[in-house]
Specification:
Blueprint: E1 4-8, H1 16-24, E2 29-32, E3 41-45, E4 48-52, E5 65-68, E6 73-74, H2 76-88, E7 97-100, E8 104-105, H3 108-121, H4 133-141, H5 155-177, H6 184-198, E9 202-203, H7 205-208, H8 210-213, E10 219-222, H9 246-251, E11 262-268, E12 271-273, H10 286-295, E13 307-309, E14 311-312, H11 313-323, E15 327-331, E16 341-350, E17 353-355, E18 368-376, H12 393-406, E19 410-414, E20 422-424
Parallel strand pairs: 1-10, 1-11, 2-5, 2-10, 5-7, 6-8, 7-9, 11-15, 14-16, 15-19
Antiparallel strand pairs: 3-4, 12-13, 16-17, 16-18, 19-20
Bound molecules: inosinic acid.
Amino acid sequence: MKNRVIIGGQWGDEGKGKIVDSLSAQFDWVARYQGGANAGHTIMRGDEKVVLHLVPSGLLHDGVKGLLGGGMVVDPWALKEEIIELEQRGFSIRDRLVISSNTHLILPFHKRIDELAEDKLTRKSIGTTGRGIGPAYMDKVARSGLRMGDLLLPPENLERKVIEKILAANEILASMYDADPLPSASIAQELVVLADIFRPMITSSYEVLAGVRNGSESIMFEGAQGVLLDIDHGSFPFVTSSSPTIAGAISGTGLPPRCMHEITGIFKAYCTRVGNGPFPTEILADEGEELRSLGGEFGATTGRPRRCGWFDLLAARYAVDINGMTGVVITKLDVLDSFSTIKVAVEYDCNGEPTKMFQTGTDVLPACKPIYKEFAGWEKPTTACRTLADLPANARKYLEFLEEELGTHIIGVSVGRGAEDMVWTPEGVIT
Ligand code: IMP
């Protein structure tokens, strides 16, 4: 059984949840390796919609074990709520979910600082999800954050540690943001109670993943967000604070690269972005609105309308290259069913200079204007298609062009919301 890493190839929201759900039943483990409750992975179970923010999507299958990896930042209040909600819907996951002891904790002041920092940036704001992600990663790299392993401390030690941390954060809130302090004692007591819930799940990922290292167990790595939001390789500073790329899968689980066999990028058949920052192929006029309503492009975490645009080949090739993707899945092809013309950015004009290289420079990308290649639309429904031959000829031409230009196989095409609405193409779409 080959292990597989699932990576969002664009600005997040590519439909990773559905693909992880479709492929994960066969794996022993599914691991989240970075990010936190800023993610929103949507899965359809019949007509029922399940949105997961922290729990790995694969856990909806009985028998699959889940890991929250050390590269994540986890809000214990949000995790408790998510676990309870899943249990109420009939998914029992408590005994199948483990949490790495080096996973960092998001505490209420991280969320408060996230909001206040965004307010302060006003027009230059990043448009974060407000889940405290950036401030929690700041505490991690400052070597001052609390980790899941701290929840294993005797209650009085944990309480003291949390109070000290909140008192320090209150000083930041007052001095930098002129904001009210947070109640340290009550938050610490709440965390002591939460610790009882999580204690049985907290473990060393080195120990529990021994079977993956020796090849007796298989694993799927479930990336959150996307390559263009990566802290190092994305459109900085309009990025998240973690590493959705392959490097994050390594550092965020502690598994070596030899455990990563297939690296699968998930790309929408067009592009979307939530939050601020450059988006060369964004469509601002009515067509953008049409894509948004046809694709239901509203954030799964915040409900914000997503900005919509055409497929950006330069950005996608960059994502394939820097991650060494061994195959890609194209999602939401059906959203393009009614368009008479479909565009793909094949080059940028950057201040009069043509380039086929994706640009990540803070000042360069906003100045890049896309140069498009146009494709005739197929103007037929695709949701019932299950094989390549079922797809309209123009849809196949569009996919063949993407496959050729990306230089890696398209191994699947999603044509609808349901798990069964897939055309699997393990040998690629160019026949
Ligand atoms: P943060 O991760 O909440 O700090 O937000 C930083 C940027 O990443 C903002 O533009 C967010 O909209 C974006 N972002 C974070 N998580 C996701 C996601 O799961 N999907 C899409 N965009 C996201």
